Known about the structure:
about 170 residues; two-stranded antiparallel sheet; about 20% helix
Amino acid sequence: MTFAAEHDVPIPYMQRTRDYYQALGFAPYRWAHFADVPFTPLSTRLAQARVALITTAAPFQPAVGDQGPGAKYNAAAKFYKVYSDSTEAIPDLRISHVGYDRIHTTAEDPGTWFPLARLREAVKAGRIGALTPRFHGAPTNRSHRVTMETDAPDLLRRCREDGADVAVLVPS
């Protein structure tokens, strides 16, 4: 086994994000993290559990410009309220509204940021029990207060309405 080359290091995306927001005139960005995180073990085996999918991907909006793979950052494609849609079909979701690393990825494979097809395969293979009838979209509006007081409770309510035992959160 050999070590990776000296230049082969993780991309410092947290510092890059802080620098980006500061260049826009915002106060230094403080990442949300908690010293005490609640954990609830599953009450059933994953192979019997009903799984909810939560994504930060946005529904495609043709009128607001390029949102395809490799598109430049597009703030007009951002969404600000939790949404839900059926897990029966693969929807047209995009990620141009988030600040991902466009130098090192093209984001051409939607399965990497919206794995609904893979979750369906896991159901067929018996690795998970079932999918909830809906998936849910979590806004990325950069407000800790709105996320904690509005979006997270709304997502939890929707997951409970769908009978979810567990949720898979896939940020883009």
